[in-house]
Amino acid sequence: MDSSASPLFAPYRPRAASGTPPDRIADLVIRGAETRDAAVLGALAAEREGRDPATEAREFEARLRAVDTSRDRIWVAESAASVIGYAKAHRFVHPDRAPAHAAPEGWYLSGVVVSSQHRRRGVGTALTLERLRWLSQRAARAYYFANALNRASIDLHARLGFTEMAHDFWYPGATFTGGAGILFACELARLEASASGG
């Protein structure tokens, strides 16, 4: 099955085969999400998941009101004063009686969503870099998992230093429709050294 057949995944176009890349968004700003962003975040989530925008917006508003940055955070990408994407990070702690093959405890990246008209313009990369910078002040390692069919996401994270860690792992509620899950890790100290030229 080709990952491009799923509406949940961006069509996979490897850089070497994609021709001239589209222009980057010059005024792109990445910031922490606020409750005022709930409606547009709900619309973006609904576009991707095929769900009701109002329901999604209410869920975002509740989450943003209750957010605790010691374990959970949402970022938005903004251009021309409009939110065009978002991404999340959360800290995973093993529940009671977690199985032996449970994913490691720590900070996980999740939920990169970019509006359809702004994809392939560096928004996902900018959101991921900002989350990694933030996490580098709080952890030695960041984790991420994906459906093996989601090659666009896997390629993006690989460019930023994520390496494959496991195929056989358990994470509460995680399912991988049509494919298998892969767990990845990124050493944040190495990322910081690279960014500083060390």
- Please tell me the CATH architecture by its name: 3-Layer(aba) Sandwich
Portion in helices: 25-40%
Sketch the topology as an H/E string, one letter per element. Answer: EHHEEEHEHEEH
Measured on Cα atoms, how large is the radius of gyration?
17 Å
Structure, briefly:
The chain is an alpha+beta fold. It has helices at residues 38-49, 53-65, 123-136, 151-159, 188-195, and strands at 29-32, 72-79, 82-92, 106-114, 141-147, 163-166, 181-187. A 7-stranded mixed sheet has the order 1-2-3-4-5-7-6.
Labels describing this entry:
alpha+beta, 7 strands, 198 residues, Aminopeptidase
Description:
The chain is α+β, with helices and mostly antiparallel strands. The chain has a single domain (3-96, 104-195), classed as Aminopeptidase, CATH 3.40.630.30. Helix content is 28%, strand content 25%. It has helices spanning 38-49, 53-65, 123-136, 151-159, 188-195, and strands spanning 29-32, 72-79, 82-92, 106-114, 141-147, 163-166, 181-187. Strands 1-2-3-4-5-7-6 form a seven-stranded mixed beta sheet. α1 packs across α2 (53-65) and α3 crosses α5. The N and C termini lie far apart (42 Å). Residues 1-7 and 16-20 have low confidence and may be disordered.
